[in-house]
From TrEMBL:
Signal peptide: none
Pfam families: ABC2_membrane (PF01061)
Organism (species): Saccharopolyspora elongata
UniProt key word Isomerase: no
Single GO MF annotation: ABC-type transporter activity
GO biological process: lipopolysaccharide transport
Keywords: Cell membrane, Membrane, Transmembrane, Transmembrane helix, Transport
GO cellular component terms listed in the entry, alphabetical order: plasma membrane
Source organism, top-level taxon: Bacteria
InterPro entries with a match to the protein in the record: ABC2_TM (IPR013525)
Topology class, membrane: Multi-pass membrane protein
Official protein name in the record: ABC transporter permease
Length: 286
């Protein structure tokens, strides 16, 4: 009688590829759980920048106040705007712009600048992105002192809708994360990206309604035609408006929020794809 033996199929080999969605999401989750690390590092960045300074981080507020005042006085005359309404408009726009610019320009070097830390202290790469966003948030908080001063000086009328600026800023922080992640990974591989972004930042500043009002273009719609809507085609304009409108007491427009939410979804989808494919290579590129 011939005996038969059952041969079990060999177990599937463990998943060793670093290009998995599980590892991409785990990196972000682990980074969020290490909030004490990136929060401490972000605060130390601020302290280190103003080390041995008498007034320390207050120089951030003073610099913002001087810049906003000078630009407000100049451009209010150029555009024939009343200073009581134009200076608050410009101040809030400039504060939000500095946060966006910081996430964009410093985001391109977020991994390059932390080369030593990444090699000596293994941690999720999202820690460095969270550190950057947290640092920019602290700078934003310092600059908001200028807004409070302007609010008191011009006695701006605001309503309870000002609280909408809180979820708007949280949404801005969320977008700062994917911007730093995407551009940080790309710039680590291609070192020409940081100078390109720095060169384009000035152009983006003047193309975005910060020192000029988008209503100026819309008022000339019969003359300009489709060009009167150029401001609406600029995503940065919508990011600024969802915070600026409630802070200066203007009515909020739903389409600004829709554009920002759409950019957030698309941006994070792109960030997750980039993180999934190139997360393991960053330490070799820096």
């Amino acid at each position: 009688m011939q005996s038969t033996s059952t041969v079990d199929s060999p177990p599937a080999p463990p998943e060793t590829s670093s290009r998995t969605w599980r590892k991409a999401f785990k990196d972000i989750n682990d980074g969020l759980q290490q909030r004490q690390l990136w929060a401490h590092l972000g605060w130390q960045d601020i302290k280190q920048r103003y080390r041995r300074s008498v007034i320390g981080p207050l120089w951030i507020t003073i610099g913002m106040g001087m810049t906003a005042t000078a630009l407000g006085l100049l451009y209010s005359q150029l555009f024939s705007q009343e200073i009581r309404t134009f200076l608050p408009y410009l101040t809030v726009g400039f504060i939000v712009w500095n946060f966006i610019l910081g996430c964009l320009t410093e985001g391109t070097e977020v991994f390059i600048a932390n080369e030593g830390l990444m090699k000596q202290l293994p941690s999720p790469i999202s820690v460095h992105v969270l550190r950057l966003v947290w640092r920019q948030s602290l700078l934003f908080a310092h600059n908001m002192i200028v807004y409070l001063v302007v609010l008191a000086v011009f006695q701006m009328p605001i309503s309870w809708t000002v609280i909408a600026a809180i979820p708007a800023f949280m949404l801005l922080m969320l977008n700062g994360g994917w911007v730093a992640l995407v551009f940080g990974i790309i710039a680590t591989r291609f070192r020409d990206i940081p100078p390109v972004i720095n060169s384009l930042s000035t152009l983006l500043f003047f193309m975005t309604p910060i020192v000029w009002n988008a209503d100026i273009l819309k008022s000339k719609a019969p003359e300009l035609g489709w060009r009167a809507n150029l401001a609406d085609l600029n995503p940065l304009y919508h990011y600024i408006e969802i915070i600026r409108d409630p802070l200066i007491g203007q009515d909020q427009l739903l389409y600004h929020w829709i554009v920002v939410l759409a950019c957030t979804i698309v941006g994070w989808a792109l960030a997750l794809v980039v993180l999934r494919n190139y997360r393991a290579r960053i330490t070799y590129w820096v």
